[in-house]
Q: What sequence folds into this?
């Protein structure tokens, strides 16, 4: 792998057959060697803010913001003001994040009314964040056209989050209001204008190991730069609200296999890591992870940035911005 070999689907599936804590931790150790050789010891730190929440038109089974199944205690509000978002960006800067992502509910700005001025407001906000902070603004606004991607790039956005969530085969079991291919098309639009794709998925929705491998291979084929690895933290009121969470051992096994398939990509700890891994979070950072969200998530709280920085220091890792290979 370190010499440039690309693992095949059959080989990746063989890795999923590894069982027992001792053997899985050995797999994690090998994955960590790949991380060290291909990515170094800098852990990419990013923070996010939910700039618009609730009443989403889509029916993603894992999400508490859907109008189809609004989760318990899920906040509902329109687009935050530029001043509010800027305050979050400044807090992310102070917390040591190098990137700051503006996340909005909804299928995407490509479906907004021509009279809707939210996209222009976000472009202006991005420019102000660049002018007044040290963080690099990213966006996650749903589906976008090539023209909108170009406008984001001109405003200063260099990376955009748009997850595939799962394999194509599993996708219609969790979402039916749009398709997996719709997600892929937006990723291709981003790549076409030179914006880096921050594209990953969610583990623990009931998918098989084959689905997880297919997702990782799709991300490799799309040549995405950053891969958020989320772990389902079931939200009350959603269709997956009763789903049993992954065990920490299965979670780190998944991380390790993703590192084997994606040796040079940024693999990012994202939503659910605290709830699923708990005390095993350090092990994830020794199983192939080289990036993490710090601070809170969209509708749930994360552990403090101070705890994350202490964890990195203990492991001999350095928070910063991981260069894209």
A:
């Amino acid at each position: 792998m370190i010499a440039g070999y690309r693992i095949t689907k059959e080989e990746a599936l063989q890795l999923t057959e590894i069982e027992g804590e001792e053997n899985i931790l050995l797999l994690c150790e090998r994955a960590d060697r790949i991380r060290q050789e291909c990515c170094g010891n800098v852990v990419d730190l990013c923070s996010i803010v939910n700039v618009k929440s609730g009443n989403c038109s889509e029916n993603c089974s894992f999400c508490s913001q859907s109008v189809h199944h609004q989760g318990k205690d899920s906040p509902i509000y329109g687009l935050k003001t530029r001043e509010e978002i800027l305050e979050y960006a400044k807090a992310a800067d102070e917390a040591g994040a190098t990137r700051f992502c503006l996340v909005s509910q909804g299928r995407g700005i490509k479906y907004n009314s021509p009279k809707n001025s939210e996209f222009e407001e976000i472009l202006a906000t991005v420019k102000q964040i660049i002018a007044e902070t040290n963080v690099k603004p990213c966006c996650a606004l749903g589906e976008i056209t090539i023209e909108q991607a170009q406008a984001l790039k001109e405003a200063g956005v260099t990376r955009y989050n748009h997850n595939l969530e799962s394999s194509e085969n599993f996708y219609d079991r969790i979402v039916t209001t749009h398709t997996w291919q719709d997600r892929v098309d937006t990723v291709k639009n981003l790549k076409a204008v030179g914006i880096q794709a921050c594209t990953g998925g969610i583990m623990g929705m009931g998918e098989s190991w084959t689905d997880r491998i297919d997702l990782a291979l799709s991300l490799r084929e799309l040549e995405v730069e950053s891969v958020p690895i989320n772990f389902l933290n079931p939200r009350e009121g959603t269709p997956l609200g009763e789903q049993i969470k992954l065990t920490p051992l299965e979670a780190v096994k998944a991380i390790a296999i993703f590192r084997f398939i994606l040796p040079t990509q940024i693999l990012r700890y994202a939503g659910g890591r605290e709830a699923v891994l708990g005390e095993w979070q350090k092990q994830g950072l020794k199983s192939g992870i080289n990036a993490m969200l710090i601070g809170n998530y969209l509708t749930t709280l994360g552990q403090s940035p101070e705890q994350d920085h202490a964890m990195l220091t203990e492991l001999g890792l350095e928070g910063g911005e991981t260069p894209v290979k």
In short: The chain is about 40% helix and 15% strand. The first helix runs from residue 9 to 16. The first strand starts at residue 42 and ends at 52.
